[in-house]
Amino acid sequence: MLALSTTGNWSLFIDTTCDGNPAEMYESTGDETDAYTAITAYVTWLNNAARAWYGAATFSWSYARSDYAGARLTLAWTGGVNFAMDAGGLATLGFDADSSNTSLTAIADAVGTWAPTVPLAVRGYARSLKDGDAESAGAVRPGVPGLGHRQPAIEAIGKAIDAARVAFVLATAATPRQGSVYQEHTGDWLTLAIGEFQRSRQDLAYRWTIAAAGAPV
């Protein structure tokens, strides 16, 4: 999954009730500009010790590829308590007003998300070392000589619906372009500067190679 920062309004005001407690209003900080940072911040708020329902339920989130090659989010929790939210997150995260005792799944794809047929992979991503002669921007890096200035790249394989979705998402991207990328094989999220998209044929599918940098500019 790629969650691009977009030009839209990411201010979230979600009226939330849980376990019969009085409603509490979630208000985003303004630092969230993509679906990953927005849903992560909301779940962190839900699990904060200041919430009236703290200890009665523990919240988490996940996503699944939709039929439109976007990411459809699901909010789940333990404890079997009743949880309800209003439609404050509909325009960005895709959640409509609803309630449940186990989980809520969005009715629309999260804004700025792309979940191609074959999950994204980031190649050549060198994690930073501490400052000094052997730090990661130097000419020589311990254990991996010569990789200090190698540019990472994001790769994906998909179909025509994936091509249509990524074109739609790119049209809404903020400048400078950055995004959060999920590494399926490691379970890690990386925040990267997103550069040029190159598309080529891969048998009956498409292959994308996306230039990236280790941190947004």
Description:
This protein is mainly beta and 217 residues long. Helix content is 11%, strand content 37%. It has helices at residues 35-46, 160-170, and strands spanning 2-4, 13-18, 24-27, 59-65, 71-77, 83-85, 98-100, 103-105, 113-114, 118-123, 153-158, 178-183, 188-202, 205-213. The strands form three sheets. Strands 9-1-12-13-14-11-10 form a seven-stranded antiparallel sheet, with helices on both faces. A hairpin with a 5-residue loop joins strand 2 (13-18) and strand 3 (24-27). The longest helix has 12 residues, at 35-46. The radius of gyration is 19 Å and the shape is elongated.
Brief overview:
The chain is mainly beta and 217 residues long. It has helices at 35-46, 160-170; strands at 2-4, 13-18, 24-27, 59-65, 71-77, 83-85, 98-100, 103-105, 113-114, 118-123, 153-158, 178-183, 188-202, 205-213.
